[in-house]
Known about the structure:
By secondary structure, this protein is mainly beta.
Amino acid sequence: MFQNKKEKKELEELTNSSTIVAKGTVLEGNIETFGNIRIEGKVVGNIKSKSKVVLSESCVVEGNILAHTAEVSGEVRGTIEISDVVVMKATALINGDLITNKMVMESGATFNGQCKMGATIKEIQIGEGERIKPIKQEKTA
């Protein structure tokens, strides 16, 4: 899998990195990262992470999410695919389907969609073609 120790070290550094989309920020486009990502603002697009996705109370995501683990406190409009565990906090509002291995749902969380648990999700590929289906944008006048 790795050709040398240098490539392995670089991949470990990428996986340990963190990205933050700050409150008040609106990002239009897809995000792909090896490391953790915390969303406090708004993302209109898909999010893909080989690590953890944290969605704060103030966040809104209009797109699909594919990650190893996730903690949702904000709003998501799209499909969520998590290979390990997803935690839905009391303030979570999810409108879309959920595919995960394990789920924790706090009292007060809202989930509107279908759920498939115990699912085996293929390895998350970063930068190697589109694994997440693009969201459909509605035209506004």
